[in-house]
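Mods, move this if it's the wrong board.
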Amino acid sequence: MDVQRDRLFRALLSAARGAEDPAALRVGLSALGRGHRRYGTLTGHYAPVGECLVQALARYAGGRWDADTELAWRRAYRLISTIMIEAAEEAARTSPPWWQGEVVRHERRTRDVAVVTVRPDQAYPFRAGQYCSLETPWWPRVWRHYSFAAAPRPDGLLTFHVKAVQAGWVSNALVHRAAPGDVLRLGPAAGEMTVDHGAGADLLCLGGGTGIAPIRALVEEAAEHGVSGRSVEVFYGARRAAELYALDGLRELAARNPWLTVRPVLSGAGSGEGALTGELPEVVGRFGSWAGRDAVLSGPPAMVRRGVEALLRAGVPAGRIRHDLVGDLASR
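Not the wrong board. Structure tokens:
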């Protein structure tokens, strides 16, 4: 419940801070409303939750709570719940609250990284660059977010890269316990780290650790659509060469597609063939100006934040930088 408490307060703070940008607020809350379907949340649940929230605020705000404050909170919650309810009811007309997915392949790439391939029980719509939430049979009602590691494919299979992290219930189960035949539950696809392949701008991709998963999917999608003169640069970072578990596959893609360049980056001791050295954001920044590029970043939250700063300094406009901080969404 501590995790749920923190998520609730983060959502409330995001709604309060986003009041001046109604369009962005609606996007975020709509995704939240659709996501709550997997917990069995119904329209009738929102009103009593709102009453409990107001009563809790009144109790702990003390002398700062008055009639105007209560009215403001009730209006805010009414807005939040209305957007979430509308999104959930709209989604219910076209998709289930979750999908069943059978594990059909489980490959250990390193001691703590596994590539898990899943066959959903019905058509699962998504775009390269997005992510979904997964629930395992060993931790019921505990959902964690993972990015799709491959573009949509004709056989409908879904691929995820999972790193087991300390105290990570779901990640450790997926890496060390899951096996072909196990059945997972999948929430709907979410995330805005998608690319318009018809836009024509060159693309810069930064992937750290298992953050390379959605980058790989975006590169596959670009190859399928055709790039029409667009170049794609991928910087793939890890501490040690052995942790660059997806490098061979990316190099194979680069060998078949001359518009693709793959640059491995190592931040720890040792070296790898053709690898640059240093922290991934700083290495990318050393290459000079990236003005005119679209950019996508995926990896640990600290890396993504530093990467955004480096790209801004290197001339990439903020509006052309896309990322989903999946790590902030508790990918454990």
